[in-house]
Amino acid sequence: MKVAIVGGTGYGAVELIRLLNNHPHVTVEKILSHSSSGTKLSEVYPHLSDIIDLEMDALDVEALSKQVDLVFFATPSNISKDYIPKFFELGIRCIDLSGDFRLEDEAEYRLYYEDSLADEKYIKEAVYGLPEINKEKIKDTKILANPGCYPTATLLGLLPAFKHDLVEQDNIIIDAKTGVSGAGRGLSLNVHFSEMNENFKAYKLGSHKHIPEIEQELTTAAGETIQVTFTPHIVPMTRGIMSTIYVNLKEHHSSEEIISLYQKYYKDHPFVRVRNEGIIPSTREVYGSNYCDIGIFSDERTGKLTIVSVIDNLVKGASGQAIQNMNLMCGWDETTGITQLPIYP
Ligand SMILES: NC(=O)C1=CN([C@@H]2O[C@H](COP(=O)(O)OP(=O)(O)OC[C@H]3O[C@@H](n4cnc5c(N)ncnc54)[C@H](OP(=O)(O)O)[C@@H]3O)[C@@H](O)[C@H]2O)C=CC1
Ligand SMILES: CC(=O)N[C@@H](CCC(=O)OP(=O)(O)O)C(=O)O
């Protein structure tokens, strides 16, 4: 199958290229760039020299729809919403790494993304691509909204507790940390070396665009409106997300009991690993891989459940999950091409 990647010089795109290079059924036919058309990707990223020799092109929807079967959008928000409807009408499937098709509510999108939502017709066509909850719908969709990095780690950590009705649905506190590559390749004062090195910052308290995304999916799972307290932090590492979640248990269950429920919940989901009692995963344990690893601690003293969920933001948090979704959309085994081991140390 031939695919194209839009947003060619960004981190999401280059991670797609790294992973798709091992995919047995896919060729990256076209790489589209609005800033660097006419340039070889390997001139921007010399680590690809003599391996990926494609020259990047400007995006032309009509022409591209005749050349490829599926298009990945690895662009900033508020861009794919103008293009994906056109590809849809031309019968081309799209996978969007940005947030343009994740939210169903116009008002929430306006508030958090500061723009108008895509036309309702296409929002209705889109499926939220968290394979661990939406596998069947993903198989049939032509517009795949790949989840955000923080929501991926957080929802995978929380959903089994919701499913088993273990926790109170208010007072959900999500304390999350990300590596700097989460901010993409673009330069900004916030992420340059001397601002980040030996530093640790909380940001966007109460205003991060992943709040409505997490709440939307938890509300669907719970069948009633859920609100969360979400505080993201940026830490001086390149890759990785750790989402540490605090919830109140409805009644006491030991760590062992809850771990057993989580392990059963994920037994048919190859990319989620739940650690045994007393073992809490670190971001290095998933680095470069499509795994989400979860650790559980139930505190009998306080009645609180602490869930620690880690992913690589660029893999399970973006490009790896996008390929997992492509595999499902194409009827292939969901692990095809993305079984790389984590890189350790
Ligand atoms: N980094 C991460 O960990 C994650 C990222 N995401 C999402 O994936 C998407 C891509 O992220 P990431 O690759 O990190 O971001 P980058 O900033 O690294 O790359 C985005 C690329 O999009 C292209 N682009 C930028 N501005 C425009 C524009 N105005 N019009 C068209 N194209 C533009 C540029 O490539 P070019 O000039 O070559 O076209 C740019 O390099 C974003 O929506 C991001 O939020 C999701 C989960 C995790
Ligand atoms: C460090 C940093 O800035 N991280 C980004 C990660 C979010 C992201 O990639 O968001 P979408 O997938 O929803 O576009 C942020 O917090 O905005």
UniProtKB/TrEMBL annotation:
SUPFAM superfamilies xrefs: Glyceraldehyde-3-phosphate dehydrogenase-like, C-terminal domain, NAD(P)-binding Rossmann-fold domains
GO cellular component: cytoplasm
UniProt family annotation: Belongs to the NAGSA dehydrogenase family. Type 1 subfamily.
InterPro entries in the record: AGPR, AGPR_AS, AGPR_dimerisation_dom, AGPR_type-1, NAD(P)-bd_dom_sf, Semialdehyde_DH_NAD-bd
Keyword Oxidoreductase: yes
Name of the protein in question: N-acetyl-gamma-glutamyl-phosphate reductase
Keywords per UniProt: Amino-acid biosynthesis, Arginine biosynthesis, Cytoplasm, NADP, Oxidoreductase
GO molecular function: N-acetyl-gamma-glutamyl-phosphate reductase activity; NAD binding; NADP+ binding
Pathway: Amino-acid biosynthesis; L-arginine biosynthesis; N(2)-acetyl-L-ornithine from L-glutamate: step 3/4
Residues at the active site: 149
Compartment annotation: Cytoplasm
Domain Semialdehyde dehydrogenase NAD-binding, chain residue ranges per copy: 2-141
PANTHER family xref list: N-ACETYL-GAMMA-GLUTAMYL-PHOSPHATE REDUCTASE, CHLOROPLASTIC-RELATED, N-ACETYL-GAMMA-GLUTAMYL-PHOSPHATE REDUCTASE, CHLOROPLASTIC-RELATED-RELATED
Reactions catalysed, as given in the entry: N-acetyl-L-glutamate 5-semialdehyde + phosphate + NADP(+) = N-acetyl-L-glutamyl 5-phosphate + NADPH + H(+)
GO terms, biological process: L-arginine biosynthetic process
EC number annotated for this UniProt entry: 1.2.1.38
Pfam families in the record: Semialdhyde_dh, Semialdhyde_dhC_1
Cited function: Catalyzes the NADPH-dependent reduction of N-acetyl-5-glutamyl phosphate to yield N-acetyl-L-glutamate 5-semialdehyde.
Enzyme's top EC category: oxidoreductase
